[in-house]
Amino acid sequence: MTIKPLVTKHYETIDAYAGACVARELLRLTPAVVVLEENRPIDVLTASDLALKPHQLVIDCLHGSPTVSCTESTAAVMSLMKTTGKIVLPVIYNDNFYGLIYQADILSYLHTNHEKQKLALLAAAHDLRSPIAAIDMLGTILRADPVLNKHLHLIDKLSETCDYAQVLIEDIIITEKSHSEELTLLDENLDELVDECTTSLSDKLKDKQLVLSKQLCSNRAVKVDRLKLKRAIGNILWNSIKFTHPGGMIMLSTSEAANNRVCITIRDTGIGIPESMRENIFDKFTKAKRQGTAGEPTTGLGLYLTKTIIESHGGTIDMESDGKTGTSFIVSLPA
């Protein structure tokens, strides 16, 4: 989006040769004033400019703000503001002064627009649940029809697609809600919580004949949102299961760390993560996604959600992999 709809054309002005004390009083009422020389806008002045260059006349306090076109994108203007440290910039259109663009107005728009998109995405996800469930039910009915047995491979494909769609919808709903939901922080035994994360995945471990080794040595109480942290750890474990060949091993451990922190480490003997994928592994709808070793689908949201949850607890998550012989995820949390 361009900044044009966000440009304000209502602003105070001051003559370039007015006293700085006059500008200071004016800036008590407005965040910025447009400086005029012979009734022509030449710059924009803020209280920060006066503080950085304290002189008698307004013209001597100016820093020479860069101008932007009203056709510039919000992202480009925000980047320029970050580089220059400016909270407001003069806007030009057809080589003429057009108005002012404030950082606060861009941020307000982006926040409002993000909330609208989030609500639309949640509404769409909820609306898709019923038709996908109906299609899945149709597949069940078709599978029971002896006349259609010769098309069983197509029915299986239909069922797999519905399963993937349902997982994706749930991931979208959980991910979008995670940004706005408050954490319910309670003291929890870390080892017990981590151990519980393996229970719901026991069938998947058996299906792939994977060995799970546990060394839970922390025995510390941590203040966490139990359900959310279990989801985060469960996502990492499921990731290890997906990308480890049958007969492989997953090692889960907890330990004490420096600065009154605890660590949760999950290592596997799987296929590893190629270097080309590592930079984007925690991105939302990451491109660094692929099928598991048994064809398990991936939505590209699991590790993004995991990172979001862990960071909301004041924690960090790191990933290590040589791209060939497994992957390690190390979670650090305040104790």
General description of the model:
The protein has 335 residues and is α/β, with parallel strands linked by helices. It folds into three domains: 8-103, CBS-domain (Roll); 108-178; 186-334, Heat Shock Protein 90 (2-Layer Sandwich), CATH 3.30.565.10. 42% of the residues lie in helices and 22% in strands. The protein contains ten helices and 13 strands. 23% of the residues are buried. This is histidine kinase. It holds the Pfam family HATPase_c. It comes from Parapedobacter pyrenivorans. Its EC number is 2.7.13.3.
Quick overview of this protein structure:
With about 325 residues, the protein is of the alpha/beta class. The protein is about 40% helix and about 20% strand.
Itemize the secondary structure elements and their pairings.
Layout: E1 12-15, H1 20-26, E2 33-37, E3 40-45, H2 47-52, E4 68-69, H3 74-84, E5 88-93, E6 96-102, H4 103-143, H5 152-178, E7 186-189, H6 190-199, H7 202-207, E8 211-216, E9 221-224, H8 226-242, E10 249-257, E11 261-268, H9 275-278, H10 302-312, E12 316-321, E13 327-334
Parallel strand pairs: 1-2, 4-5, 8-10
Antiparallel strand pairs: 2-3, 5-6, 7-9, 10-11, 11-13, 12-13
Helix pairs in contact: 4-5, 5-10, 6-8, 8-10
Pfam family, one: HATPase_c
GO molecular function: phosphorelay sensor kinase activity
Domain Histidine kinase: 123-335
